[in-house]
Amino acid sequence: MKAIISHDIDHITVWEHLFRDTIIPKYMMRMQIELFSGKISLREYTLRWADFFKNKWQNIDELITFNNINNVPSSFFIAVNKGVGLNYSNANALLWIEQMKYRNCEIGIHGIEFNSFETIKNEYTIFENLTQQKHVGIRMHYVRNNSQTLINLSNAGYCYDSTEHAFKNPYKIGNMWEFPFQIMDGWVIEDGKKWQSLNLKTAKQNTLKLIEKAQQQNLNYLGIDFHDRYFSHAFKTWLDWYMWLVEYLKTNKIEFVNFNTAIVELEKQK
Ligand SMILES: [Zn+2]
Hints:
- The chain is an alpha/beta fold.
- It is 45% helix and 13% strand.
- The mean pLDDT is 97.
- It binds zinc ion.
């Protein structure tokens, strides 16, 4: 089994949310609950206020550096549309796309449109025009989908998607490879709540069970989604969880690949 780690970019700045959505009040509420339930320390709480005033809600550079040191190819999904609490501009997205290209990252779209072929195709075209990139992959924001989404993504020209959450090997839909993923940071650490409900020890134990399940089902690729937003000392459990997970996979000789490398491997096997 190899591992494919990818990162969804849900936020770039704090201010992009001002007067546009309810993310800021929700964020305030969440950090109060986490502090009073003993899930975060006073230091984390203070650092979250610091992020707020620095207007910085992404940790892309820091995450790429950590990945590079650990031989993890950095693969990101970044949005070119707004919706469901995602509100950064294309100008801001493009600044980071340039930076990610410069640092040899794999870049796909964090999709907002999932309902119809026309809107899906339109999102694809916006990204293509913005980046001139061919060979585009996608993961839907909040993994939203309906019964037609994946087939529409394939018809729109995407070469890979990783929206499906399932213990299944990658498979083809038309010309598109679907990479089901198994582990998402939020699902593990929040465990069904809207705030951190588990401590690091329990989160690790639950993650090990997921890895074991993937091994038992003979998966060739373990899909992991970690949000760059949480690669920060303001989210210490999340940061420690991710660093532990990478170390654990390295220790167990699980090689890291990105989607494009996996596609080459999969096409060879056919
Ligand atoms: Zn998202």
